[in-house]
Amino acid sequence: MRIKSSQKKSRESDAQGDMTPMIDMTFQLIAFFMVLLNFSDAEQDQSINLPKSELAKPPDVAYKEPLTIQMTADNTILFAGDKMTMSDLQSALLREAQIIRAYPNKKVSDVTVIVRADRHARTGKVQEVIQMCQKAEFDTFALRGRQSDTSALIEP
User: Fold this and answer.
1) 50 vs 125, more confident
2) Which helix (H) or strand (E) holds 6?
3) Which numeric CATH code is attached to 40-147?
4) Which of 14, 20, 39, 94, CA to CA, is 20 to 30 A from 109?
5) Is pLDDT of 141 > 70?
6) How far apart are the first and last CA of the chain?
């Protein structure tokens, strides 16, 4: 039996589906993944070359209240996107602690200070930064490092 051309056109139009639900679902997925995206890497300066360590590993869970302080190879301090001296850092930390205390459901002890120091930064300067944080009543710290290549540790 031969199909007439008018019947053929009507069948083709029935075969096309409505793309609106698929487009809607695509936009919902994009919005979902944007919400889940971790923006903590955005405040990390990529010019800092972290030291290698066998003990370095990513944290098991994300820090509840992270506060990142970075130190470059020439001991320049980067905090909240600004270059600072040690005295500027001290006042910025005191201000940050005061802001945290202003919220009724937050405590300074909930904050984890993440210290990212370049491998050529002076250890004494890193210790000074930690002492300044302690004066501002921050007491939880995480020192960042790169994982060393474990294959180099295994001898044949």
Assistant:
1) 125
2) helix 5-15
3) 3.30.420.270
4) 39
5) yes
6) 76
Q: Show the tokens assigned to 108.
A: 């300074």
Q: Which pLDDT band holds residue 154 (cuts at 50, 70, 90)?
A: very low
Residues 6+ apart with CB under 8 A from 68: 40, 43, 44, 79, 113, 114, 116
* Nearest alpha carbon to residue 117 among 144, 90, 92: 144
Query: Which residues does residue 117 pair with via DSSP β-bridges, in sequence order?
Result: 71
- Parse the chain into domains and list their residue ranges: 5-36, 40-147
pLDDT in tens, 3-48: 565 555 555 555 677 888 899 999 999 988 887 765 554 456 566 7
pTM: 0.60
* Displacement of CA 97 from its chain's centroid (Å): 21
Query: Per the structure block, which two tokens stand in for 150?
Result: 């474990």
Contact between 55 and 148 (Cβ < 8 Å): no
CA-based angle 79:85:86, to the nearest 5? Answer: 90
Q: How far is CA 131 from CA 26, 56, 93, 107, 124, in A?
A: 49, 22, 11, 19, 10
- Whether 60 and 112 have beta carbons less than 8 Å apart is answered as no
